[in-house]
Specification:
The complex is a heterodimer of chains A (about 240) and B (about 290). Chain A is of the alpha/beta class and about 240 residues long. Chain A has one domain: P-loop containing nucleotide triphosphate hydrolases (Rossmann fold, 3-Layer(aba) Sandwich). Helices cover about 35% and strands about 25% of the residues of chain A. Chain A is built from nine helices and ten strands. In chain A, the strands form two sheets. Chain A has a six-stranded mixed sheet, sandwiched between helices. Chain A has a four-stranded antiparallel sheet with strand order 2-1-4-5, covered by helices on one side. In chain A, helix 6 packs parallel to helix 7. The two termini of chain A are about 35 Å apart. Chain B has about 290 residues and is an all-alpha fold. Chain B has a single domain, classed as Orthogonal Bundle (ABC transporter involved in vitamin B12 uptake, BtuC). In chain B, a hairpin with a 2-residue loop joins strand 1 and strand 2. In chain B, helix 1 runs antiparallel to helix 8. Chain B is globular. The chains are: A alpha/beta (about 240), B mainly alpha (about 290). Chains A and B meet through helix 2 and helix 3 of A and helix 6 and helix 7 of B. The complex binds adenosine-5'-diphosphate and magnesium ion (MG). Magnesium ion (MG) binds next to helix 1 of chain A. Chain B: Belongs to the binding-protein-dependent transport system permease family. LivHM subfamily. Chain B: One of its GO terms (molecular function) is transmembrane transporter activity. Chain B: Pfam families: BPD_transp_2. Chain B: InterPro entries: ABC_transp_permease, BCAA_transport_permease.
Amino acid sequence: MPEPILTLRGLDAFYGDFQALYGVDLTVSEGEVLAIIGANGAGKTTLLRSISGLIGNMAEQVQFRGASIGAERPDVIAQMGLAMVPEGRQLFPSLSVAENLMIGGRVNREGPWNLRKVYDLFPILEERKAQASTSLSGGQQQMVAIGRALMANPDLIMFDEISLGLAPVIIRDIYKALPGIVGGGMSAVIVEQDITKALEVSSRVYCLQEGRVSLEGKSDAVSREDIARAYFGVE
Amino acid sequence: MDLVNAVVQGTLLGGLYALFAAGLSLIFGVMRLVNIAHGDLIVLAAYLGLTTTAALGVHPLVALIVVVPAMAGIGYVLQRAVLNHTLGDDILPPLLVTFGLSVIIQNALLEGYSADPQKMDAGALETASVALGPLSLGVLPLLTFAFAIAVIAGLQWVFYRTPLGRAFRATSDNQDIAQLMGLNKRHVFGMAMALALAVTAVAGILLGIRTSFDPSVGGGRLIFGFEAVIIGGLGNLWGTLVGGVILGVAQTVGATINPGWQLLAGHIAFLVILAVRPNGLFPRISG
Ligand SMILES: Nc1ncnc2c1ncn2[C@@H]1O[C@H](COP(=O)(O)OP(=O)(O)O)[C@@H](O)[C@H]1O
Ligand SMILES: [Mg+2]
């Protein structure tokens, strides 16, 4: 098995007194696409926010390329090569489409992605580059959010609810772009409500339930019954 | 004729108020911080100008070369060492801390310079004027207005044309996501305060040439700046200039009618606009 790029060891996460994650262990291998599924409120977003540093943890609980980053600042983690496409896109409304992309590139990491490459991947964004990001459709906004993350040339890219709220034809387009993104050796973590889709694009899958890992396995080996049990906690 | 003169003089005075206001607006826009010490920082800049002119024997406008970077440095350190720690979901801590800062600056200036009114000597510039038809325009007020336009155009350029401005806007929009872009928000806020206090340096020097000042006058400058920001609409720098002009014109017109009404007229104009347009004339930031 290739080297892990990301390792979580007994990750707990809290919002004040409320504990949202309990001892999560997880690994992402170099070049792997990992899917994370789970019901609403299971803790998927919390997990990604912990990895990216927006929620502080104990240093050793999150290892990224051999470094303990659990207590590191989010901007430092971004510089190290970790990027996120956040839930609900969360583009910068005061920035144009092009500026949203450019600010993603300000970590200034070497790699294949630049403004030109993002426009090649999503040509519609070049047509709309001077527009306010808020004037785009949901699907186009998701393209900007993905492009913004790619501009950082990350080693690991995390997608939170990549297809939430998008029309099926748009979802198809976005997934069509995925191999071109992760094909270059970039590792990916994908949080996805559509379980079929999640299993299709990933090599391994984790299911979260109420803040705990309830299932872990190869995406082509887990059964529907396993997932139903892990998802809802029904026997 | 008196009225025309009052409107023209008030417009030029508005340039000074816009300079008071620009830094306040910038800081609020980027980090939602209301800096109660802003007026005292303007006065601090005036005293730094006074010391620079005395120590180096230079013209007050030349002192800008020293005071602008000095105030910017003070701003950066102040933000990183103190103000960043007060920012959060609760709006009260920054208010309390900047209020405390205001008291500290006033007392420090009192210790260092005494309560005696001071003034910077700008020589012939103070009295020079140009005739415009029947009107006589002071060169200093004209210069102040030109400074205001240049400063606001410069800030506008930084905000909308540079990577730093992009970082300001992104951080203002969404601090969490901005950090995911590799932006250290503490540094971004430090840079915003540095820029704001650089503007404050210009405002303080021009204030100190125009009128005499003592350590207690900061509060009044804060109010004028605050009113200009609110009239113009939060987050809109050109609006801030318009706000300053409206305030200045209201004051000079009020004073023409009755010399005692100068400040009152300004406050009334502010209240009327606040009542009619609670978000100011040209709001850009909602919420
Ligand atoms: N900002 C917050 N403050 C308090 N509780 C939160 C916050 N965000 C999420 N939670 C809680 O944490 C749990 C996990 O939420 P989340 O990670 O958003 O789940 P998911 O992304 O899987 O839907 C939920 O119970 C949710 O209510
Ligand atoms: Mg979520």
